[in-house]
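Data availability excerpt. The first of two example chains:
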Amino acid sequence: MNINHNKKKLIYTTIIALVIAVLSGIMSFFGFPKRLENMAQDGLYHRPEKIPDNIKIIAIDEKTLEKLGPYSSWDRSCFADLISVLNSNPNTSPSVIGIDVVFSGTNYSDDDAMLVEVCSRYDNVVMASTITIDSYLQQDLDETYYTVQYVSGEGKPFDALANVVDYGFTNAIYDDDGLVRKAYSRWEFELNGEYLVYDSFAYKIASKVDTIKDYPLQVEIDMVSKPGEFEAISMLDVLDGTVPKGYFDDCIVMVGAYEEGLMDSYRVPTDYSKQMYGVEMQANYVYGFLNDYIIYSVNKTAQFMLVFIIIFLFGVFALNSKLKYALICTIVVIPVYVMMASVLFVTTSYKLNLLAVPMGVIIAFLISVLLKYIDMQIKRMYEMRDMLFSMAEAMAETIEGRTPYNANHTKNVAKRCMELVDYINEQYKLNKTQINFSEDDKRQLYLAAMLHDVGKMDIPLRIMDKATKLGNRETDVRARLEIISLRIENDALNGRITREEADSKLNQIKLFVENLGAFNCGRPLSESEWQLVDEIAKSKYVGQDNTEIPYLTHEEIDDLHIKAGTLSEKERETMQSHVVYTDKILSHIKFGEYFKNVRTMAANHHELLNGKGYPKGIGDSEIDTMTRILTIMDIYDSLIADDRPYKKPKSVQEAFDILEEEATAGKVDKELLKFAKELYLVDNN
């Protein structure tokens, strides 16, 4: 039994672990919940390092704007001057000057011409552009439609400038939470048979410094700085010579907006509290491309399988082990997984999903706690139920142990109730009745049957054990009549009465004593027997001193005049009161929801459908089906019992004949009796 239970438990815990593992794998596959997952990954995979000193920012800051005026009023000569200053000494010039400003339009002024002329003299200038990405539907050979994205427009430097400088687009990629984590390396597409490539601004700068590997079109850059951490020199300080010559020797110089009013700032994963200026972000991208600070995602299928295996194994263990071991495993698995993800990232730059495993582990652990709590409650419920049943059996044993008569009545009634209920359920399955019983119904009926006579503990044993009408007083009657007979004989010898009179009295006493056993049993008496009993009841011996000795006491006369059975009317009332005591005793037991009808069934098992039962005299509408079964089985077992001293047992057929009479009189349920006859008469034929 225990082996089967363990097998069942292992099966359902394995299924639960499988479901949790699949759900966790799906979470990792889709990165759900997205925002929380992004936050977790930002904390582990974006860890700012030492700021590189070979990348410097020339900031279009507040100081510069105060001197040169609002940015919208600038002419382009200031940028020409800046490029000239930076490249004034070929030996100390920057390796690349990246200007994060889009010079998309021209008025053909001298300032624009100056910028073009300066840029044409130096090959280390990269300028910013923008692109517009659009899409259209394309039909494949198998008539499947798919979306093709392409660059439909470009905000590049004006033509004259574009011919003398390199440029790349600076479009930002926003995540759902508004942060910028990814960057473009380039944009490739085919349009009208022509293959076109657009490099990003940062990728173009990095390519001028060194040979860059062929990255995917979109990459996640592992930023090395938080906002404001790159060295930023005011553009004004560079233009007016405050910054010493040679300061930007062989550096990558990034020029761009560094003031909030210029509207070029973004939220980045390295610091949620501040925004990073676009030029800083481009500086991070350049460093990332140059040093392969790229964050790669583990293949989604591999991620799914890894999470699935971890959660499945953990789930099976946690759901089948003690709570303390499941807790220890939970405490260990989560940090170990995070550590494993960290080591993998540091050594390979590949990132694992971070939340799926901890969430799966926690869910599995909580479910294991819940299941253990449910198991504990179920175990406790079973223990309480078993205790209730064992208590009922102990009480039944106590009742039946008080008297040798009918010692197995309670157990027999309970057994027969279960047999009849099972038989009726079989008939229900065969569509032969609308009556059926649940396991809870059966348990309630069994418990009620075991407790239905518990009130007999309050019935005096002299009534419980009264096998005859006189009970243990038959010996007293015989002894008294023997003494009276001796006195009558003595009176005849002394001449107080005639021999004939004495013999008449002695013969009457002798006849009564010889038939006393028959008079004393529980069967109805014949007319002649009643006549003899009445004669003896009226007789008394009168002594020489006129002392009277009644042949029988008033109590003995009343007992011998019992019409049927062995109990007097008063004793019968006392015996019938056992159901009242049953109800009173059971009122002190808290049966709970699952056994709420037990007390009522036990207390009503002597009630009849016609309202003539006892103790309350309730009728058909107030007697439930299970109580009706208990009533029939109680009567049936009493009729066929072979341990009743006051009567002979009835045969099964005779018992059901009597029960049929009771059903006809409207006392017991006809349909339930029909099923009982089918069950027990078939078994006895």
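And the second chain:
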Amino acid sequence: MKKTAFIFLMATCLAEGIQAQTLPTLENAVYGGLIPVKGGGGVNWLEDGLHYSQAEKNPAGGRDIVSYSAKDLSKEVLIPARMLVKPGTNDTLSVRSFAFNADHSKVMIFTNTRRVWRYHTRGDYWVLDMQTGRLHQLGKDLPESSLMFAKFSPDSRRAAYVSHNNIYVEDLASGTVTQLTTDGTDTVINGTFDWVYEEEFSCRDGFRWSPDSRTIAYWQSDSEGTGWFDIINNVDSLYPSFQRFPYPKAGTTNSAVRVGYVSAEGGATTWINIPGDPRNNYIMRMDFIPESNELFIQQMNREQNTNKVWIATIGQSEPKHIFTDADKAWVETNDQVTWLKDNTWFTWESEQNGWRHLYRVSRDGKQMVPITKGNFDVISQVGMDKKKGWVYFIASPDNYTQRYLYAARLFGNGEVKRLSPLEEVGQHRYSISPNGQWAVHTFSNSETPPVIDMVSLPTHKSVRLIEDNAAAKEKYASLQLRPKEFVKTQSGDWTLDAWMIKPVDFDPSKKYPVIIDVYGEPASATVQDVWSGGSLWHQYLANQGYIIVSIENRGANAPRGREWRKCIYGEVGTFASQDQARGILDLARQYPFIDTSRIGITGWSGGGSQTLNCMFRYPSVFSTGIAIAFVADQRLYDTIYQERYMNTPQNNPDGYRKGSPISYVEGLQGNLLLIHGTGDDNVHYQNCERLVNELVRHGKVFSQISYPLRSHSISEGEGTSFHLRKTMADYFLKNLPAGGR
């Protein structure tokens, strides 16, 4: 061997060895830590809009609650850790969250928390008097960690909270507790919500103080008559135990929900007589109009294609209907209603002109004036400066995978102005102060870890760098991975966004197998130009010898207008799988290195459903699939989500049949792995069992793994996440041959 050839060979081997060592491992992909990213970009703004607070470790023990000036980062210790020591002990409260009263004379500490379905919303609450240093526990005679949503009255004299589905008010000076409701049971829920309202409407905190501190308005849900679902626990004891909760499946009986108000001193509740069957209408939002004794209430019909707005006055039971938003498909809740000009106007989001835009609506509902105009979607409202007359929102008119900050005049002509820097291409997030003067700004894209700075608005002038994540950027670059490539593909007349990741040793002269990562339902989108930890799971799979692809099908929650999102109404699942099949074949026509004989697909939840639809309906395209936590039959999912996009099974039986993978099991030809948690309270394990039963009936061979008592995330228990990902990787490697040919 010639010396030069030997040196070249040694250098090549050394380079390959270094590269192999630095490529993400499965452990990196599952547990993280390979790319050290700092900062979350969100802050707890104080009411003055000039400062934000956070908890910081105290060297002597515990955590101080401190504030920082947005302008110059000057620091003040608001609550030293020593003030959070439980009386008569040496124990310092572990602060989950905290909230000040209006004048900062008191602070409420949430601690010792427990998870309720998705989030930690139950625990203990303590109140600290900033002037006297007195720290005392709310509801101390109630069971440990049973309080929910405690909050000060506007006058700071009392606090209200929920415990075991009843509402209580506690006088902060005397400690006297008044129980406002007494009928709370497992089926009658006061001041909070049942499973489906929490999951689909994000309803958790179910009561509101009136601005004058005299009244509490609240929701009550009666789940009697709603079907109960049982989750079997076969893990913890010799004999199984059961978790039971009301879960209305599509087309079945909902809880009866109503709203009313009661004096904070106690007494009878006055129920607001909103027309309509309380089991076939939804009351998704309710709040007091600022500085008034009036309630602003949103009510959807069961089909969720009308959102009626009502105003109810304390002291009366008959509300006034002022406004209705409607759509032939579905409408959304309005979560950021803001009152303007002495409560003569309120803001509203609507798709009435084919795009999602902001409007201002007169108090009587007779005038609806655009705040934003144009052929683009307002993705979300993120802040407002009422004094200067600006509203801030996220949009991306030219690239649906990206996100930018825009501003418009609240009383302008609809013209919008981009504020995010032109040179920062990707996605921008903002945590804007209550007065709209300052924002913590986070920029990233698929190759750039978050860069966080403080900006002043509306100029978007950067006043201070908070975190540049230079070390993370350097580490990511050192891995020499192939970045996501954003591309376009076709499905009939529709142009779809997509991305792909290639292996580091990619050879364009060879053909490679593809793994598609799909979601495809209206709740989310996968093709986004944003930092996602370096996409280490996808990178790991790619470097086993695959091209990883994601395609955004019609109906996904992308800012492409009403027609894009709602063309799937009544047929969720059919267009998605069609677009995935057409999309990957069109990519193969564009890129000859895609091997159409080796196409795999995987997805979670709605993505699991689309995986099944693709495997069953397009067996000539997809040869291997892994479906996780999937809906096999849309009739098995909840009323609010499924009926929003499909109407009821009674009114749309053919749509439910066509959209449900279980209808097409006879089409399976390839390799299929089913993964589900038996403790999934969201998409029940029942889906997996029914699908298995149907696959067996049709003589179809498949693989299955069930994770005992794991929830929808399949994350509980030591080693679960790693086991799941290793199972997936091994299954693809065994059944979808890797590498270029």
